[in-house]
């Protein structure tokens, strides 16, 4: 610990001394739109990033994909040192609706200690902080403490359609010891967070057609099967009133949380009454006895995203609908895969309502890095060194991101260490990043490199 | 029998002799639009009818209601004779879409033995046939064989909103021994039909709101209750997979069919394969073992008319919907009433999903006249006399009409004796009435009066 404390202190001093210059340079960066959904500015910003990386002494280039290019950079210092792959994305969400922005989305503006701009939090401010962490090491010590790979994607905001393909094709160039992503927010209390996993997802549609046309409920009620009832009864066999998924075989393989994961969850802050008040909930979803984080981390969930069939207008219409559909997603925990889940749902539908059409839609694998990974402790120490407080350790989060490309395709431990404030308003008007969060992010990135550099391979 | 056969033969001859004139007069009548939904031509046509009735020597007038007026006519011949109340409606459906009519809806046109015009079958041609039946009796014998009341409504096509109120207010003027309605179609084989009842209906909506806003299924799946799941599980408690309504207490009072009703049903023709082919059915609705007519006549049915909640667009959207609603109707058999059913559904919802809002909509009582009514046999004989074949006797039909105002408010037996061809296309473009059906209707009406006239009170 002592051998890294000394250079880090100098690096932190350097970061503080360059605070205003770093902010100015970040504002220059986010001034350039790079909207993947509109294919706007992608090539220009990718080119800028290659320039930034080369200034850090990295080999850097854009690598084409079937979609927008990846930006890849590397700087090796020693085969005895670990290699960290820093992942981020340089594309941003479209800024609409423009009229709700206080200042224009691509004219970064500082108000009350925050920079307002599209992409400032998600994700430009965060990977720019990583870049500046490298730069600060180089400025103070003349070298990097460990080997560093940068992978910056240009399609994250449109669902990362090519990252798995890219990672498979370039696995040799992506050899590393761990992956660190800085994206998303700190805890709403401001506490730092380290996340070890994400849930996967398997989305599908169920379609019922019970007759060639809608009929009159008086003339045919009791005679013609009703497509809505068909789906209601099918759904009722898929999840019971107690909230348990009852699709045969689906939940059996689920790996229960480890003791480390359970301990971590017990240490997470939780204000259930505040959550219920904010969302207008009278109760949590079934099952009643399940812990809040258990619901989001350790169990698959079957959500009906939409159910539509028959008459939806005002008053009554005595129609018996012949067609209906539901859209569903199942959030996946280890070791569930979309293929496994689709097989189970297909078999369940075949058994309970063979006339219903099952249509698999998107899928994404879950990802989880063991909490006793040898990198967990250096990461924790880095956060403490940079911020002076212990990070909250999330075994996993409820949402789905393509982290599996790192853990499952590359076989690497992968961690998310977010830098943005919880109210960053990403994907929304007036996206912002607190300058303090940006500076703390640079320090966290710098401390992370230092901690990794203290490890031997 | 013999004393009525002779005058009837002369009356039938009169009808045949006046065939063309009757058709011309019917075409003149339907040329006048009387669209209740658009409040178009109502007063004019009601006035024409009063004129027609007065020419038959009836006391006739329009009687105001809170909506469109009723046309009421009466001619009493003897207190020793029964009084028949002939019900019909002079309003018609809107003719849209006009472009699908081969000839304009209010320019009656004969093609291939059919008159095409809006309202020709539903219901002007049918009550005009009843008028001509009276006229023919008067022309041949100089008198009517029984007392006759006419009640012609101007709001049937908008749901008869004021008929119950009217019948309650004018019960003294509507004293009769039976009610006969000529509306709807003959059997598709062309066979005549006599119907003794209708199912009632109770329509309602169920609304679920589980949170103050939709949330992301990843970030909140398993935590926030899903409005669609709430309604799915509630509905699944209301009707089981075997098709049985499981709302507590709802079906218990249902009166099973009488032996007469069961015998009548067994004599009804049924081509199940043709029905299945026409509607594209692979099977009838559950329960599997229930007879076709049992489904429509002797059991309540719970139809979901529509179910809507959450995302309905293309592809996937990982949303967890906080709002959803279903619209349902329950068809009622004796002795179920809308109030009884609403009470049972309300209590069921309160027990199984108290957070779901129950909203009662429209309701209509069922109606049934015993098949051993003393008027059943004279009616059967009248049909045979006019048409030479036995009528199909329907204990009840699946749909809902306000016949209860006659059976339950006035306490009268009520019968439906339809005159129109099965492919009359009522409520649709190219509505039509076969001239042969119109003429047979006049004869049936005439025979009915003769049969009733042979009875003593």
UniProtKB/TrEMBL annotation, chains A, B:
GO terms for biological process: proteolysis. GO terms for molecular function: metal ion binding; peptidase activity. Transmembrane segments: none annotated. The keyword Protease applies. The keyword Ion transport does not apply. InterPro entries: Cyt/Met_Dipeptidase, Peptidase_M20, Peptidase_M20_dimer. Residues 197-356 form the Peptidase M20 dimerisation domain. Keywords: Hydrolase, Metal-binding, Protease. Pfam families: M20_dimer, Peptidase_M20. It comes from the Bacteria. SUPFAM superfamilies: Zn-dependent exopeptidases (SSF53187). This is M20/M25/M40 family metallo-hydrolase. It comes from Nitratireductor arenosus. The lineage of its organism: Bacteria, Pseudomonadati, Pseudomonadota, Alphaproteobacteria, Hyphomicrobiales.
């Amino acid at each position: 610990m002592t051998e890294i404390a000394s250079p880090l202190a100098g690096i932190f001093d350097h970061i503080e001394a360059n605070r205003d210059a770093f902010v100015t340079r970040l504002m220059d960066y986010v001034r350039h739109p790079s909207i993947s959904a509109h294919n706007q500015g992608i090539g220009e910003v990718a080119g800028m990033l290659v320039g930034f990386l080369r200034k850090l002494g990295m080999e850097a280039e854009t690598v084409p994909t079937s979609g927008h290019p990846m930006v890849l950079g590397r700087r090796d210092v020693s085969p005895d040192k670990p290699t960290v792959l820093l992942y981020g994305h340089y594309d941003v969400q479209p800024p609409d609706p423009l009229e709700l922005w206080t200042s224009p989305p691509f004219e970064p503006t500082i108000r009350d200690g925050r920079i307002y701009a599209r992409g400032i939090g998600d994700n430009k401010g965060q990977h720019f902080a990583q870049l500046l962490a490298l730069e600060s090491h180089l400025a103070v010590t003349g070298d990097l403490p460990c080997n560093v790979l940068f992978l910056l994607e240009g399609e994250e905001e449109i669902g990362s359609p090519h990252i798995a393909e890219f990672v498979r094709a370039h696995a040799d160039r992506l050899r590393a010891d761990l992956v660190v992503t800085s994206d998303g927010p700190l805890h709403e209390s401001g506490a730092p967070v380290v996340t070890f996993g994400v849930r996967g997802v398997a989305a599908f549609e169920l379609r019922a057609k019970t007759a060639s046309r809608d009929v009159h409920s008086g003339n045919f009620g009791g005679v013609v099967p009703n497509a809505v009832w068909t789906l209601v009864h099918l759904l009722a066999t898929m999840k019971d009133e107690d909230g348990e998924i009852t699709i045969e075989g689906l939940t059996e393989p689920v790996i229960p949380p480890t003791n480390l994961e359970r301990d971590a969850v017990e240490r997470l802050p939780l204000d259930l009454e505040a959550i219920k008040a904010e969302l207008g909930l009278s109760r949590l979803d079934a099952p009643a006895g399940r812990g809040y984080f258990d619901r989001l981390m350790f169990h698959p969930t079957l959500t009906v995203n939409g159910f539509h069939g028959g008459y939806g207008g005002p008053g009554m219409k005595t129609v018996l609908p012949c067609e209906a559909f539901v859209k569903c997603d199942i959030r996946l925990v280890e070791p569930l895969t979309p293929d496994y889940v689709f097989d189970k749902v297909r078999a369940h539908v075949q058994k309970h309502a063979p006339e219903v059409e099952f249509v698999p839609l998107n899928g994404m694998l879950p990802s989880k890095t063991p909490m006793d990974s040898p990198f967990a402790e250096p990461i924790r120490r880095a956060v403490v060194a940079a911020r002076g407080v212990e990070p909250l350790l999330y075994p996993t989060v409820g949402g789905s991101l393509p982290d599996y490309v790192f853990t499952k395709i590359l076989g690497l431990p992968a961690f998310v260490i977010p830098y943005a404030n919880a109210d960053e308003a990403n994907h929304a008007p007036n996206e912002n990043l607190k300058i303090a969060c940006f500076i703390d992010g640079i320090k966290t990135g710098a401390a992370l490199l230092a901690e990794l550099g203290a490890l031997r391979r």
